[in-house]
Design a protein that fits this description.
The structure is a homodimer of 199-residue chains. Chain A has 199 residues and is mainly alpha-helical. The first copy, chain A, contains 9 helices and no strands. The first copy, chain A, has helices at residues 9-27, 34-41, 45-51, 55-79, 85-99, 101-109, 120-140, 146-168, 180-198. Chain A binds a DNA duplex (30 and 30 nucleotides) through residues 1-5, 9, 33-35, 43-47, 49-50, 54-55.
DNA sequence: ATCAAAAACTGAACAGTGTTTATTTAATTA
DNA sequence: TAATTAAATAAACACTGTTCAGTTTTTGAT
């Protein structure tokens, strides 16, 4: 039927990303498909390939948006804390995951096709989160050498991430859901305690 | 062509599981398909459905076998350690993941179809790993109350798991691969140090 | 205003996926 | 040897991502 001109390509791209996020949120990443996105937008599949290189591109950009939200949410938690900001950002990270399980899992369970690359924004945004934790840690443990801060930030953050992963995939069967934040507190606080003892 | 009688159904099932693990090991979970398994065995797809309920069933049982190997490997590491067994089992867990990335990722990145259940063995084996860590922790921290041991074991183990996840998915960009075991040591040792300080 | 060119959009095709089922073939039993 | 049972297949179904030849509409120039 040809050009309808109702939406610009930029608008179509935005619509597609929002629709994809909607489907991920409601039905999970596994239920996302190109045709489903297109149909829900009122277009056909081919149109998506005018604004995305391929399906991987669509998913990556949708996940990048989630990663942004996740970053802002975590940052917000740390900024509203007056002490132990490292713990607070960790709890903020967990809370976003618990509140948006499907979107959170989509970020970390998406299997990148062989031979494809991450979109640049994706790697940047992951890096930004680590950097944020590192900056909070350096304030909280001023006597720690910068090499140690770097390693510790990654260890701590990976640990918090691991708790989120296992909690969201139902693999923490011996732990009640309301105890999951306690796991984060336990890990972060004891690790920090151990660090300060070394000084 | 009908019954060839070359293999019993039990043998066919074992062949399928071994073939699936082979494909996962070499090409990753994303490249696994029912037809590929069947073809590599010298059978057709339909035959697989004589011994598996569905594809989910096949993947689950293949992953359960990996989970067993992972458990034995981790147990072995802890048994050969004379002190700090909690750290050693953690490093053993990490090493298995680094040595068998595709099999390890298959366990944790497999998206269970909506409305399907884990096979019972699967949940049991995950539980067994947590229980093992908990039993080592209780020896290493005898003065810790049993409630705390339970929580701490899960927090610690999730932490170690998180490091494995991010390392294998290439999200620890600020860290060299040979430093990853250091991350595990840092997390585990500092957390244990913090715990002992609380006593 | 008319016509050509460019851009937007579709629909159908392709190879692949998991799954089901009628059918064929071989081994077992009577 | 004939009837029965079990093993295995081939083909179909609905779905997936991806491509591309056409069709339709808008735009730009005469």
């Amino acid at each position: 039927m040809g050009r309808r001109g109702e939406h610009s390509l930029a608008e179509i791209k935005a619509m597609a990303l929002n629709t994809a996020i909607e489907i991920i949120t409601q039905q999970g990443l596994a239920q996302l498909s190109a045709r489903k996105v297109a149909k829900q937008m009122g277009y056909t599949v081919g149109t998506l390939y005018l604004v995305f290189k391929n399906f991987h591109d669509l998913v990556s950009q949708a996940n990048a948006m989630t990663l942004d939200e996740l970053y802002r949410h975590s940052l917000n938690y740390s900024q509203h804390a007056i002490e132990n900001k490292v713990l607070q950002i960790s709890l903020g990270y967990l809370q976003y995951a618990l509140d948006n399980p499907n979107r959170w899992r989509a970020i970390f369970e998406y299997q990148m096709p062989e031979q494809e690359q991450w979109i640049p924004e994706y790697a940047e945004k992951v890096q930004k989160l680590f950097a944020l934790v590192e900056s909070l840690l350096v304030v909280q443990c001023p006597s720690l050498p910068s090499d140690s801060v770097h390693l510790t930030a990654h260890a701590l953050w990976s640990g918090v991430h691991g708790i989120c992963v296992l909690a969201l995939t139902g693999k923490l069967q011996g732990i009640e859901l309301e105890q999951v934040p306690d796991l984060v507190s336990l890990l972060v606080n004891n690790c920090l305690l151990g660090l300060q003892q070394q000084d």
